[in-house]
Amino acid sequence: LVLSSPVDEVLARQGFGCDDHMNQGDVEYADLVEPEAIKEALRMNIVAGAQCLVAPTAGITPACLRACGLETRGSEIVHSALKVVRSLTPQHVLVEIAPCGLPLDPSSKNSLNEHRDQYARAARFCADETFDAFFLNGFANPTDLKCALMGIRQVSEAPIVASVTVDGEGTLADGRHSFAEALEVMGEYGATVAGFATRALPEAAATLADEAVAKLGLPVLAQLVVDVVNPRQGEMTEANPYFTPDVLIGVAAQLRDHGVQFLRATGHATPAYTAALVAATAGFDVKRPDVDG
């Protein structure tokens, strides 16, 4: 299944944010005041063939809401975003929750409890809503991810898609922990889908998929991070391997062969990237060596 690309790039091109760049809270604010713009960005993903729409709710932890002056409107943001998403009748709906951004001291019980509470409170904003899964996305630290999983599990039994940002060497975005450590947390604390986001070359992405398949018996999500598109870039580079939607057709087929069951283009991806992933995977069965033989 293919997940919708972020709405940020489409909204930025329509003039949201400053200097064509979306700031923290811009999308959540647009959920409230410009739902039609959100709907149009998501509709483009439906036209592209995405089976899973990701609700633009990443910043609904109380700390994120407070940082952008929306601390009293968490439930309202979730309700507005999901109303728009459901109106497009996708096969599946995911509620995205990003890291809360608070300082984290793994040795402090108070710090850990505060982090768990952030994600539990975010999940409570969704208590009366209809959706298929939570999407913990953009995590850079296994301890923060553990807090998020534990916090959501305090209040909900809904499926959880968990994803961490990792480079081609298997190092998380915090520069101190490994993808293997994150996978251990996903397996132990109730993730339903194990995911990663990377801007690494396709071969490295395939290796990350192999690691997830080998370590856990869970479905795997691969997110391919698109950098700012340079019209003059004519070939794949290590700095921006996914520079055009056409590249994703071959990469998607490669990742499917390595057992990936969910795909997404993220970063500066547009719905055109979603369409390429759909074109490469539509009508094919998942290949899972650990299941098929």
Estimate the strand proportion: 5-15%
Strand order of the largest sheet: 1-2-3-4-5-6-7
Helix content: 40-55%
| Largest sheet data | 7 strands, parallel
Shape: globular
Number of strands: 7
Structural class: alpha/beta
Number of helices: 12
Q: Mean of the pLDDT scores?
A: 93
> What are the segments in which pLDDT stays under 50 over at least 5 consecutive residues?
none
H and E order: HHHEHHEHEHEHEHEHEHH
Distance N to C terminus = 22 Å
Write down the Rg: 18 Å
Q: Secondary-structure map with pairings?
A:
Blueprint (H helix, E strand, L loop, with lengths): L7 H6 L12 H8 L1 H14 L3 E4 L6 H6 L6 H14 L4 E6 L11 H16 L8 E7 L2 H14 L4 E6 L13 H10 L4 E6 L3 H14 L4 E7 L18 H13 L4 E6 L3 H11 L7 H4 L1
Parallel strand pairs: 1-2, 2-3, 3-4, 4-5, 5-6, 6-7
Describe the structure.
This protein is of the alpha/beta class and 293 residues long. Helix content is 44%, strand content 14%. It has twelve helices and seven strands. It has helices at 8-13, 26-33, 35-48, 62-67, 74-87, 109-124, 142-155, 179-188, 202-215, 245-257, 271-281, 289-292, and strands at residues 52-55, 92-97, 133-139, 160-165, 193-198, 220-226, 262-267. The protein has a seven-stranded parallel β-sheet with strand order 1-2-3-4-5-6-7. Strand 6 (220-226), helix 10 and strand 7 (262-267) form a beta-alpha-beta unit. The longest helix is centred in the middle third of the chain and has 16 residues, at 109-124. The radius of gyration is 18 Å and the shape is globular.
